[in-house]
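Quick one: sequence plus S-adenosylmethionine SMILES, need structure tokens.
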Amino acid sequence: MSTGTYVLAGQASELDRLQLQSRVWEPAGRRLLGQIGDGAGARALDIGCGAMGWLRLLSEWVGPNGSVIGTDIDEQMLSAADTFVASEGLSNVALIEDDLFATDLDPGSFDLVHARFQLAPLGRAAEQLATYLRLVRPGGTVVVEDVDPGSWHFLPPAPAIEQRLIPLLAQALETASDDPWVARRLPALFGDADIEPSVRVEVEALEPGHPYQRLPLQFAAALDGLLRTLVEADDLDELLDDAEAELADPGRWGLSFTLVQAWGQRPA
Ligand SMILES: C[S@@+](CC[C@H](N)C(=O)[O-])C[C@H]1O[C@@H](n2cnc3c(N)ncnc32)[C@H](O)[C@@H]1O
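Reply:
Sure thing.
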């Protein structure tokens, strides 16, 4: 499939999924920013911020004397982000419609540039990283986060989800993206761009009933058309029923996928 197009665009359920996901991963982002250092007064950019992204985190990190810009190509995402920013009173955050592949933002104008869950869906990793590096000032920091599915499990095991649904989703994502597991080569990608990478990973434990346990089913709904080209409709419906039954177990914990966080400085 051609790259550069976001396969889940235009779905209302995607807004909810992205906001939930952003909340789940906020502590991981806060830990990473703590490791990067003090951001007071900085100018930060969240590229492809979606419905929430890192906006609240960056707003906190730069503080009242700093500023945050969130960009996205999708008006619906920006509108949801705008509602979120207003409801949280994030007065140091502004939102701009911008296509990262033809950006109107000023080069070298940010102290920190962050992009999450963008390399895999858009599939133009080297070009995307080059854009992020162009936008950050010399000596500034680029942060990229993406997904490694290796840790995605349930306790006790959920065989329909783990052995059938997740592999099917992986197959669909491999059809939709040239580079779905780009997270595994983030260090090499940074190295190719002459950036010394730092890397850390995060896995969330999801208590019984945690809404993020439903992520495989949310992906299945978003990718329904594609999944039905890969398996018979009856088999898919049966698999989704089995997955629902597993999630209904009131004692089942979940482990998230692995969030891979890579960052580094643009040479001064
Ligand atoms: C998987 S979502 C991730 C959103 C957000 N970064 C987060 O972690 O919650 C990918 C986002 O990239 C945006 N996007 C897709 N193509 C883009 C482009 N060319 N320029 C800017 N944003 C884009 C989509 O609209 C979507 O909001």
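The mean pLDDT is 93. Residues 6, 9, 18, 21-22, 48-50, 53, 71-74, 77, 99-101, 116-118, 121-122 surround S-adenosylmethionine (CB under 6 Å).
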